[in-house]
Design a protein that fits this description.
mainly alpha; about 0% strand
């Protein structure tokens, strides 16, 4: 989207929004699938009740911490690298996790 903003081409804007929309929109059903697959459906409400507050705190603190980090370092690049590393750690964790054994 940054490239689209600098070039002003509508086709690049459209491609960026489509990729972002499908990518972000896919996270909700994917997370629901993973929660049910790894923890089962019988206690999914209780498990999500523990997990979502952690997500909310991270979502609330993230912009504040990134803003502080950019104020101190005068650039967003280290913060973006840290975010990318966090996403990569999460992706690798999901990738290497074993499928639960049936009970």
């Amino acid at each position: 989207m940054l490239i689209a903003a600098t070039t002003g081409q509508a086709s690049v804007w459209l491609a960026g929004f489509l990729l972002y929309g499908f990518g972000f929109g896919g996270t909700i059903p994917l997370s629901e699938f993973l929660w049910a697959k790894y923890f089962g459906r019988s206690h999914i409400g209780a498990i999500r009740g523990v997990g979502y507050p952690i997500t909310i705190v991270g979502t609330g603190l993230g912009p504040v911490l990134i803003g502080y980090w950019s104020d101190v370092s005068l650039t967003y690049q280290p913060a973006f690298i840290a975010i990318i590393c966090a996403y990569l750690v999460g992706a690798v964790t999901v990738w290497v996790s074993r499928e639960p054994s049936p009970r």
